[in-house]
UniProtKB/TrEMBL annotation:
Name the record gives this protein: Scinderin isoform 2
Record-stated family: Belongs to the villin/gelsolin family.
SUPFAM superfamilies per record: Actin depolymerizing proteins, VHP, Villin headpiece domain
CDD domains xrefs: gelsolin_S1_like, gelsolin_S2_like, gelsolin_S3_like, gelsolin_S4_like, gelsolin_S5_like, gelsolin_S6_like
InterPro entries assigned to the protein according to its UniProt record, in alphabetical order: ADF-H/Gelsolin-like_dom_sf (IPR029006), Gelsolin-like_dom (IPR007123), Villin/Gelsolin (IPR007122), Villin_headpiece (IPR003128), Villin_headpiece_dom_sf (IPR036886)
Keyword Cell wall biogenesis/degradation: no
PROSITE patterns per the UniProt record, alphabetical: HP
Coiled-coil ranges (or none): none
Domain HP: 770-833
Keyword annotations: Actin capping, Actin-binding, Repeat
A Pfam family hit: VHP
GO biological process: actin filament severing; actin polymerization or depolymerization; barbed-end actin filament capping
Record bears the keyword Repeat: yes
Species per Swiss-Prot/TrEMBL record: Salpingoeca rosetta (strain ATCC 50818 / BSB-021)
């Protein structure tokens, strides 16, 4: 490399790095004369317009649950010099150090940018010719040379100028011919509506920013629209053949290394000299990453990660990054192979997925307090906690759980209604289907829960899923479907059960329809039952029946023992005051007739009758043994991840969308939102039938292949449809807009709207439109959408006189002479009312 970075760590950082990264947003530097120059927010770089002859450093700062997270990208244009690339790399390290070595570093190369980098620029990335060393051309809006721009990508788009020749084009992408006063957007027949709409945003920006709005846009769909003027401005005869989409390349093609080819290297100077040694043991585990060293995770052409432990020496930090960069050459990887540096505690999802069972120590859910029980610490109970506990969590739920509920149990593959007095009672050997109806913005919305007991048969589970789909169809696809597995119920499910007194799970169930006729229904009928009480607040507390024997007890929980003579509430020494109060509420649900007269006993002070109820004679057998501690897991927080799901290649694959917002939910797509404990399958209204059919199975496959160790049994999977998103889905999208899709225009509507756009707007012409002097075809006025200048209460006034007489069978004067009620009747007859 022509540029040699200074040795050691600088004691004084570049002045332009002072005070950066303190608020959400992008900060951008360009390498100019081997120094970094910070660009103002109005610079074109902030719009995603980067020069091919330059190198840039981009600092992304974002707020995640009240804390700032930072990523540093250094981008290398294809024509940038080795010296400029060296300065960008070194200054990236310096910027990182000025921020306490906390940010994640990413190396990006033109034409091979990561999705995470492309996601920084919502309007797409555009390559500009030249660079600071070769000089820039001033944009003269009245002077131009004809050029051809290639717009590629389904979601994160790139715009690059290509040779003005038909051989540069293909049927799978969108191309813009900038001919000065005329700007043509040519849409290949293989381009999707999403691509066309995204490209149109670029086309309009060229018109507005480079032509001052003084250019006319022409939209051409290959094979559908007249393209004679396009080829005339192109300067060539229309070619007989345009390259196919396949020849143009796959937008979503990413090189992915198989797990077997991933190699982990330790970088350490503990022996007195710097050594790089491979880690032989596989599969790789999180605990292999020693905090005192640095590591390089080599994923082949798919990317290289440099992991730096908190205790790594300065030399190890610098050497590991340099070695990671050298891998590109020594291993023969392409120059564009991404190199990402992560620090301990700030690992990215793409890094962590290479370590099965990755754990986030002390990471909590937003608003959640982690509590690990110490040995029998007494806590003062406050009744106020019954109201305040869980309020933040409840705020993200669809409603308060007081809507209308209908419950069916699966019996002989059919749905049998459950009596309302039994709502909230479940049997572990059964499966259930529930329809919950609630109001949001004065509109009825629906959730279909299908609950599957952990001892229900496979055919019952299958029948519950089938009936959930049938019920969904009955309501026109409006409900949200939620598969619920026993003991993994989502918070809103518990909240719905609270209106019926809480949730109780009993042993036993109805015999499966596939089993032998001699297989009778199984229920506990001996009069003695033991329930374990679980919950963290007054609405998610539930009672689960367990085997009535001493070994079912543990000191960390509360248990309810019902015998023919008594009802005991047993408080383990490790349970909290809150748990005791919640148990006093749920016992009335477990034992409706006798629950109010329970006998409270503390561990260690049990009467003989209690042990006798558990089949234990304490006089002859002594005190039984059971678990004396409860391991209370702290639920870890995992950053939500959004994926686009598709089967377009003939197999299921996912493509991650970084730094997402609501605009990334595209109507043509099936999306997967992974919040770890819940996986949402979002169905866009234009998703194809194959994608809809396979969506839930795709989510199941996704969870099954997750190396973190979770399973489909402990992950709640929901299928939701566009326009019917529940609150716990919407809360992951900043500033959710309920009206976004209803007020948005499709590509076809945008094309129709642009059809009437001209170079400028004449004031008198505009006045004519608003005054009703402008005329429109009958079909447009009847079927819509009508222009905003049309008075919808007087659509007939916008018909040409000849068409008016044809439609109404009278002259305009004769119509105007009619009474108002007769005019309205006539308009109703011709569907203009």
């Amino acid at each position: 490399m022509g540029y040699e970075a200074p040795k050691g760590v600088p004691t004084v950082f570049d002045p332009s790095f002072t005070g950066v990264g303190q608020k959400p947003g992008l900060e951008i530097w360009r390498v100019e004369k081997l120094a970094v120059v910070k660009k103002n927010p109005d610079d074109k770089a902030h719009k995603g317009e980067l020069h091919e002859g330059d190198a840039y450093i981009i600092l992304q700062t974002k707020e995640v649950h009240g804390a700032l997270q930072r990523n540093i990208f250094f981008w290398l244009g294809k024509d940038s010099s080795q010296d400029e690339q060296g300065v960008a790399a070194y200054k990236t390290v310096e910027l990182d150090q000025s921020l306490g070595d906390e940010p994640v570093q990413h190396r990006e190369v033109q034409n091979h940018e990561s999705d995470e980098f492309l996601g920084l620029f919502k309007n797409g990335l555009r390559y500009l010719e030249g660079g600071v060393a070769t000089g820039f051309r001033h944009v003269d809006r009245d002077a131009y040379e004809t050029r051809l721009l290639h717009i590629k990508g389904r979601r994160n788009i790139r715009v690059s100028q290509v040779k003005l020749d038909p051989s540069s084009m293909n049927e799978g992408d969108v191309f813009v011919l900038d001919a000065g006063k005329d700007i043509f957007q040519w849409n290949g027949k293989g381009a999707s509506r999403v691509e066309k709409s995204k490209a149109l945003e670029v086309t309009k920006r060229i018109r507005d920013e480079e032509r001052g709005g003084k250019a006319k846009i022409h939209l051409i769909d290959q094979g559908k629209d007249d393209d004679s003027l396009f080829w005339e401005k192109f300067g060539v005869s229309k070619p007989t053949r345009i390259k196919s989409a396949e020849e143009g390349g796959d937008d979503a093609k990413h090189s992915r290394a198989a797990a077997a080819n991933v190699t982990l290297y330790r970088v350490s100077d503990a022996s007195g000299s710097m050594q790089v040694t491979p880690v032989e043991e596989k599969p790789y585990k999180q605990e292999m990453l020693d905090t005192n060293d640095a590591f390089i995770l080599d994923c082949g052409p798919a990317g290289i990660f440099v992991w730096v432990g908190k205790g790594a020496t300065k030399e190890e930090r610098a050497f590991s990054m340099r070695t990671g960069m050298d891998f590109l050459k020594t291993k023969g990887y392409p120059h564009h192979t991404p190199v990402t540096r992560v620090v301990e505690g700030g690992e990215t999802p793409l890094f962590k997925q290479n370590f099965p069972g990755w754990k986030e120590p002390n990471a909590l859910l937003p608003g959640q307090t982690g509590i690990r029980k110490k040995k029998f610490i007494k806590k003062q109970f406050s009744a106020a906690t019954l109201h305040s506990a869980g309020e933040r969590q409840k705020a993200t739920l669809p409603d308060d759980g007081t809507g209308k509920l209908e419950v069916w149990r699966i019996e002989n593959f059919e749905m049998a209604p459950v009596p309302k007095e039994q709502y909230g009672h479940f049997y572990s050997g059964d499966s259930y289907v529930m329809l919950y109806t609630y109001l949001r913005n004065s509109k009825e919305e629906y959730i279909i829960y299908f609950w599957q007991g952990n001892k229900s048969s496979q055919d019952e589970r299958g029948a519950s899923a089938k009936h959930a789909v049938d019920l969904d169809d009955k309501y026109g696809g409006a409900p949200v479907q939620v598969r619920v597995v026993q003991n993994k119920e989502p918070p809103h499910f518990y909240l719905v059960m609270k209106q019926f007194g809480g949730m109780v799970v009993h042993e036993g169930g109805h015999a499966s329809g596939w089993k032998n006729v001699d297989d009778k229904d199984s229920y506990d009928t001996d009069g003695t039952r033991l329930f374990q009480v679980r919950g963290t607040n007054e609405w998610n507390t539930r009672a689960i029946q367990v085997d009535e024997e001493p070994k079912s007890l543990n000191s960390g929980d509360v248990f309810i023992l019902e015998t023919p003579q008594n009802v005991f509430l047993w408080f383990g020494k490790g349970c909290t005051g809150d748990e005791r109060e919640y148990a006093k509420q749920i016992v009335k649900r477990v034992c409706p007739k006798r629950g109010a007269s329970f006998e409270a006993i503390t561990e260690g002070q049990e009467p003989k009758e209690f042990w006798q109820g558990l089949g234990w004679d304490i006089d002859t057998q002594g005190r039984p043994t059971y678990a004396e501690f409860k391991e209370q897991a702290i639920q870890e927080y995992h950053e939500p991840r959004l994926f686009q799901c598709s089967n377009a290649r003939g197999y299921f694959y996912v493509e991650e969308i970084f730094d997402f917002d609501q605009n990334d939910l595209i109507e043509d797509d099936v999306m997967l939102l992974d919040t770890y404990f819940e996986v949402f399958v979002w169905i866009g209204q234009n998703a194809n039938p194959e994608e809809k059919k396979g969506a839930l199975q795709a989510a199941v496959d996704y969870v099954k292949t997750d190396p973190s160790g979770r399973t489909v049994d402990d992950t709640c999977i929901m299928q939701i449809k566009q326009g019917f998103e529940p609150t716990n889905f919407r809360c992951h999208f900043h500033a959710w807009d309920d009206d976004m899709w209803s007020k948005g225009m499709s590509y076809e509507e945008l094309k129709a709207k642009l059809g009437s756009e001209v170079e400028g707007v004449d004031a008198m012409a505009a006045l004519d439109e608003w005054s009703g002097n402008k005329k429109y075809p009958y079909e447009l006025l009847r079927d819509g959408p009508v222009p905003e200048t049309v008075d919808v209460t007087a659509k007939e006034q916008y018909l040409e006189d000849e068409e008016f007489e044809k439609i109404f069978k009278m002259t305009r004067a004769e119509f105007n002479a009619l009474p108002k009620w007769k005019q309205n009747g006539k308009k109703k007859e011709v569907k203009l009312f």
